[in-house]
Amino acid sequence: MWLSHSGSRAWSCEQCQAKRGLRSLRGNCGGPLKRGLPLVQEDDQGLYVPGYRVAPDCGEAFSDYRVRSCPVAGSNRVAPIISAYHRHRAGLATIKETYPKPTCALLEAVDVLHSNTEQAIYRAQERAMKEARSGN
Amino acid sequence: MALTFLTSADLSIDIVVTCDKSVECSDEQRSTYLSSGDLNDLGEVKESATRFTIKALSPSEREEAEVRAGAYSRSELGRILWVESPSDTQEKARWHHALTDDERTAMADYQAYLSRVYTEMVRSSLTHIGGETASVDQVNLIRPDGHRLIVMAELVAHIQRISLLGIEGK
After folding, report:
1. At the N or C end, where does chain A have fewer CB atoms within 10 A?
2. Cα separations (Å) of A7 from A16, A48, A68?
3. HSE-up of B113 (CA within 13 Å, CB side)?
4. DSSP letter (8 states) at residue A38
5. Which residue of A has its CA nearest to B169?
6. How far apart are the CA of A26 and the nearest CA of chain B, in angstroms?
7. Mean pLDDT throughout A41-61?
8. What is the distance between the alpha carbons of residues B149 and B122, in angstroms, rounded to a whole number?
9. What is the DSSP string of A105-124?
């Protein structure tokens, strides 16, 4: 959910398409990460990449997170929820209209998405203000 | 681990339990299956394996299950002790041994509440067994008792997986 705000250094599908072998090292869209992947580390649960390496512009909670499978694949799986959230935000269709009987997980996902989107907007504004100040 | 939750409380899935003699799997395959729900993660699932159909829970169904289990009268001291208890078995045994009688009673009360919550979650979620309409009452008839406990535990794990977001979604 962070990836679209993270700029060119974040993980994206284009990188896997451009670099042969990278897709398999990243777990072929959702599988566990493979040894040899740049920046990969290991703990008792297996291989992981720190969240801030995957999404450089992410918030504090995600930067501490240990990413064990490609988050772009995860984002693609929840793409319909992300679209529903943005449609709701834009006033085009409410979450209730898109999901008349939501599960606990769906509501929690929308909560997480909303909180992360708000934080991303805040960071973008901070960055813009900083750039404006340094430009003066 | 990928995201495996369902978005609508009207959706349901079929699962098998690993104590079924028509299901062959290692401990690792069992653990993977419980977190993915993908039958391909198990070693072998024969045609004769019993299929349990479960639906995802909405927030209101989950709350109703907790209320039916006694959410308003559960022991709060027991809940705090449950949260504080060490995860290591040896350490937990020594920690439990040092509790006062009141604390032990509170802890036992909370564990009984959790067990009732699991039963009520299965009551809200389980719709069919082997294609026939069923409820938690049929699960309670499973013998030997060890198998009944495994079936309950695995059903609850699958219900939580399809109904809750989990750490992967955050």
Report:
1. C
2. 16, 21, 21
3. 19
4. T
5. A109
6. 13
7. 84
8. 12
9. HHHHHHHHHHHHHHHHHHHH
Rounded-to-integer distance, Cα A54 and Cα A34, Å: 15
Tokens of A4: 């679209």
CA distances from B80 to A44, A131, B62, B83 (A): 28, 48, 21, 5
pLDDT-derived band at B2 (thresholds 50, 70, 90) equals low
Which DSSP symbol is given to B99?
Answer: S
Q: What would the two tokens of residue A44 be?
A: 């008792």
Q: Check whether A74 has a pLDDT greater than 60.
A: yes
**Cis peptide bond N-terminal to B144, omega within 30:** yes
ipTM of the complex: 0.80
Dihedral, A118, A124, A125, A130 alpha carbons, nearest 10: 150
**Segments in chain B forming alpha helices (H):** 27-36, 59-69, 76-84, 89-97, 101-125, 136-139, 145-163
Which candidate, A83, A109, A86, places its Cα nearest to that of B6? Answer: A109
Band (pLDDT 50/70/90 cuts) for residue A51 is: confident
Closest C-alpha among A56, A59, A57 to residue A115: A59
Q: What is the mean pLDDT of residues A33-51?
A: 91
In this model, does residue B50 exceed pLDDT 50?
yes
- Name the β-bridge partners of B14: B53
Spatial CB neighbours of B63, under 8 Å, sequence gap ≥ 6 = none
Counting every residue written for chain B, the total comes to 170
Rounded to the nearest angstrom, the minimum Cα separation between B69 and chain A is 18
Q: What is the pLDDT of residue B1?
A: 46
Give Rg (Cα) of chain A. 17
Of A68, A103, A112, the CB nearest to B5: A103
Q: Is A73 on the interface with B (CB under 8 A)?
A: yes
Tell me what pLDDT residue A120 has: 80
DSSP assignment letter at B40: G
